[in-house]
Design goal:
132 residues; mainly alpha; 2 domains
């Protein structure tokens, strides 16, 4: 083989190695740029969703609590006025004292004692009694 052919082959191999190195570096740079873009995009989307939905969630939570407190403060008294609660004593429904089932609301002229015994237990003890 002649010298010029040998030099040309060597030069082409060097160019091929250089082009391969350039393509590898370019691929790595493109991958890094794509990762950075994806991370930035996800961060921007997350920030956008946070900016849009956080006020809505805060408002709905605030409305939920304010309606709960409104109900507790204003409607509980009306319930007591319409059907006052009568607590059991040692003379009136003694078997009901401390029972979790005791309702004790007055509806008109009738006392509703509990779901199992609407008029109360006839004994000094109740088979359905459960404490707190």
């Amino acid at each position: 083989m002649e010298d010029w052919q040998k030099d040309l082959t060597e030069w082409m191999e060097n160019v091929a190695v250089s082009v391969e190195g350039f393509v590898d570096e370019l691929g790595q740079s493109v991958e890094m740029a794509a990762e950075d873009f994806q991370n930035d995009l996800l961060r921007e989307i997350d920030q956008f969703l946070d900016d849009v939905f956080t006020p809505i969630i805060d408002i709905s939570i605030e409305e939920e609590f304010s309606s709960y407190y409104y109900y507790q403060n204003y409607h509980e008294d009306h319930d007591l006025m319409l059907s006052p609660k009568i607590e059991p004593t040692h003379n009136v429904h003694p078997a009901c004292r401390g029972c979790i089932h005791y309702h004790g609301r007055l509806y008109g002229k009738h006392l509703f004692v509990c779901g199992m015994h609407p008029y109360g237990s006839n004994n000094n003890s109740c088979p359905d009694w459960e404490g707190n």
